[in-house]
């Protein structure tokens, strides 16, 4: 975690949201998502207010709406699942545009779509304002199990290495005139996958030996002990506290 690692979800900026410590933003997003999940599904207006809170946070972070909406496409598989629920769920039926749909299925689909979309939007906003290295340091600061943090760090760091290895192997196949066109070429692709696995395993062993030779004993040194002031915690808590107020109104009204 000593070196920076930019990712496609991150958008460089100097907004107040970017300036907040990572562990403050992680705690704020976690509490916001819990509050959204705890909101009764019948309080439709509450989810509209949550969306306004996300929009206000995105505006404060100077994240364009197009950037945020494009990253929300990751939830398309869950949307497809939610759209099937009114057709497969049991219970009383209602007529909608000439179709017989399950009432409980409609509420279930709405519940998944509303809460899932808000959760993904909050996560995308977190990723857009926080570098991966800072996220890992924030998890470490929040006392997450060190082994899990290290595994995540290695996955992020060497994911690009393995991807580059796959790209080089693909170029090597193309340079030899190979092009996968059917089932008969699956054998070559399987051998390439096996070679990639062996290379990745050997690289992992070499990295581990290099770390041990430099004094690695199972824990990573903390080289950036980021702390947060009371003002920063207060700013980070604005989103989940506002969401909590909406949630309480949703249960009482």
Description:
The protein is mainly alpha-helical. It is built from ten helices and two strands; from the N terminus they run H-H-H-H-H-E-E-H-H-H-H-H. It has a two-stranded antiparallel sheet. Strand 1 and strand 2 form a beta hairpin. The radius of gyration is 23 Å and the shape is flat. The mean pLDDT is 87.
Distance between the termini: 47 Å
Overall pLDDT score = 87
Backbone structural class? mainly alpha
> Low-confidence spans: pLDDT under 50, at least 5 residues?
none
Count all strands and give the number: 2
- List the secondary-structure elements in sequence, H or E: HHHHHEEHHHHH
Largest sheet: 2 strands, antiparallel
Task: Classify the beta-strand content into a percent band.
Answer: under 5%
Helical run tally: 10
**What general outline do the C-alpha atoms trace?**
flat
Which percent range fits the helix content?
55-70%
Radius of gyration: 23 Å
Strand order of the largest sheet: 1-2
What's a quick, concise take on this entry?
The chain has about 250 residues and is mainly α. It has ten helices and two strands; from the N terminus they run αααααββααααα.
Task: Please describe the structure with a list of short key phrases separated by commas or semicolons.
single chain, 253 residues, mainly alpha, two-stranded antiparallel sheet, 10 helices, flat
């Amino acid at each position: 975690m000593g070196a920076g690692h930019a990712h496609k979800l991150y958008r460089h900026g100097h907004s107040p949201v970017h300036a907040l410590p990572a562990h403050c933003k992680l705690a704020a997003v976690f509490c916001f998502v819990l509050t959204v999940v705890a909101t009764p599904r019948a309080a439709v207006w509450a989810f509209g207010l949550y969306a306004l809170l996300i929009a206000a946070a995105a505006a404060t972070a100077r994240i364009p709406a197009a950037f945020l909406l494009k990253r929300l496409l990751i939830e398309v598989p869950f949307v497809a699942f939610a759209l099937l629920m009114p057709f497969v769920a049991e219970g009383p039926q209602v007529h909608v545009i000439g179709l017989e749909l399950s009432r409980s299925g409609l509420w279930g689909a709405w519940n998944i779509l509303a809460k899932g979309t808000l959760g993904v939007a909050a996560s995308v906003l977190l990723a857009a304002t926080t570098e991966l290295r800072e996220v890992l340091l924030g998890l470490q600061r929040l006392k997450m199990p060190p082994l899990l943090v290290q595994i995540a760090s290695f996955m992020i760091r060497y994911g690009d290495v393995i991807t580059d290895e796959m790209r080089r192997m693909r170029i090597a196949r193309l340079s030899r005139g190979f092009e996968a066109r059917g089932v008969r070429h699956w054998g070559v692709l399987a051998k390439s996958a096996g070679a990639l696995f062996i290379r990745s395993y050997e690289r992992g062993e070499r990295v581990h030996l290099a770390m041990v030779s430099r004094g690695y004993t199972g824990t990573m040194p903390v080289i950036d002990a980021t702390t947060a002031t009371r003002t920063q915690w207060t700013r980070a808590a604005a989103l989940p506290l506002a969401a909590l107020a909406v949630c309480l109104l949703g249960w009482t009204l």
